[in-house]
Amino acid sequence: MDQTKQEEEYGYDLFPERNKGKFKKGSIAESLFTFNHKCQVMLQFAMETSPYAKLLLGAMQSSGCTVFKDRHFSCEECDGTVSGGFDAASSQIVLCQNNIHQQSHMNRVVTHELIHAFDHCRAHVDWFNNFRHLACSEIRAANLSGDCSFSNEVARFNFGLKQHHQECVRGRALRSILAVRKISRQEAEKIVDEVFDTCFNDHAPFGRIPHGNKDARFAYRDYKNRDRYYANL
Ligand SMILES: [Zn+2]
């Protein structure tokens, strides 16, 4: 497979800065610096204050995959409307500094990508060749990151809450797969449906579906207390 084709099939064309050397630093260097700085500040804030992020960072540390801000996160310019990505080849989370402008959005993207990183840490995920692995992690990320929680509020009166959430998770997982892999929609739908129930019901490390910051704070509290009985012996 030639390199350009491979880059497209693995979604790397969405992240031009991943091809070091090709990226040109132009006269907009100063505004890029400002964007980059803002992205770093929002990332730091997410890591310190989001209960979703704190739980995931703690769980990864316990699993022997300590996340370091400078090593495992990278604020970059991205193409199109993508907000972030997980680069399994370098174990790095890419945050799209040109597409993330609000703290709440940053929190969601950091959480979504940390769920991929968590899956990468705990399981031997074959991101590139096994579409079922990729589909499973996308289902979990959409289900547990709050990606589908905001729209729940809007749709509450139109759908059963539970059903709407599942439909949202399925739709988001599909879109994520189609954005980074060249496969047909039909093929992607089949794969998502095959693994949906198993992966939708895998809530690790949250122990529940956190439908908002309040749920996530409870999940984080339970997570911190998980060894309490042993510690009190
Ligand atoms: Zn994803």
TrEMBL record:
Give the signal peptide, or none: none
The EC number on file is 3.4.24.-
**GO CC terms:** mitochondrion
Task: Name the UniProt key words of this record, in alphabetical order.
Answer: Hydrolase, Metal-binding, Metalloprotease, Protease
Q: Name one Pfam family in it.
A: Peptidase_M76
- Provide a Gene Ontology MF annotation, just one: metal ion binding
The record's Gene Ontology biological-process terms are: mitochondrial protein processing; mitochondrial proton-transporting ATP synthase complex assembly
Major enzyme class: hydrolase
Q: Which domain of life is it from?
A: Eukaryota
What family, per the record?
Answer: Belongs to the peptidase M76 family.
Please report the name of this protein according to its UniProt entry.
Mitochondrial inner membrane protease ATP23
Q: Name the source organism.
A: Myripristis murdjan
